[in-house]
Amino acid sequence: MKHTEVLPGSVGEGLQQRGVTRREFLKFCTAMTAMLALPPAMASVMAEAIAKARRQSVIWLSFQECTGCTESITRSHSPTLETLIFDLISLDYHHTLQAASGEAAEHARALAMQDNAGKYLLVVDGSIPLGDPGYSTIAGISNYDMLVETAKGAAAIVAVGTCATYGGLPKADPNPTGAVAVSDIIKDKPIINVPGCPPIPVVMTGVLAHFLTFGSIPELDDLGRPKSFYGETIHDRCYRRPFYDQGKFAQTFDDEAARMGWCLFKLGCKGPVTYNACATTKWNDGTSFPIQSGHGCIGCSEPNFWDAGPLYKALSMPVSATSAMLGTAAAVGAAAGVAITWHNRSTKAAARTAHEKVTAQELLREEK
Ligand code: FSX
Q: Which of the residues 140, 199, 355, 365 has an alpha carbon 20 to 30 A from that of 348?
């Protein structure tokens, strides 16, 4: 961390103590600015801001979930990123990762809430059961009470994973626990939604880096998601897209077309209606993502993805070639009298309420 002013107790000091070089740190910041769609010049601004910042207090609560979200972030794209993010924050409470347990763990949460009142970031994964407080408790405290209590002093909340952002799998029909999302309960705090089951690790890291650099939350879309990561569909950036445009589709998972990497649309891929960055950031150190490994996208970062399925059935929208897909889809769909039930959003449809059903006829009217 040479050439950067290093203040006692700052992130910069922590990085220096861990032997992180300025070059490595700038590399991290350059990657982050690119992912956050910031101008390249912001890399050095981010480096300066983060190096001088005090480690951000983070309280992480886990409710109804499978721990996939934590598994995901602890497998961040590269060991460097993973190391860095835990240097950038002070993870004061996290059921799975903290050493303390029982009363000591709850004491750590109370202390962090008291010492950093109004300043800590609250990260939540998992949905909250409203059906009966006894469905899920931590230290004898219901998920609802713990969320409300901890949210009070938070500067902002990051809802991580589809369970926390939309209710996720616990909310799937018949929703036995009465699962709801964080935003269904907390109405007076900024909430950043980072959906995905699980979410992409570098997206979580990016949100935290943005908060540390600017002290604010990134620009969000109408579902509360950072636009830089959720601004395009998987389909928009899929490497199989040229085959879609040429009308070349795999008909089964093991036919010759599948072997040649043709489009998986007819096998139920939900890429055209799923907003996420899997096709660009990929997973496992940029190695691959579901579509690259031969399986269509299941739309896990969209609301109600499980019930909205069915997973292996082609979307009720016509196959068309062009990036103005929705307009064509509307025209053909109107003729067929079909309804597009996923919340397709593109061009004018982007301004719509996210959860509403959009009929092909309505879209056609708008496109005129
Ligand atoms: Fe849900 Fe996350 Fe899916 Fe699992 O914490 S988003 S079930 S990956 O673990 O909450």
A: 199
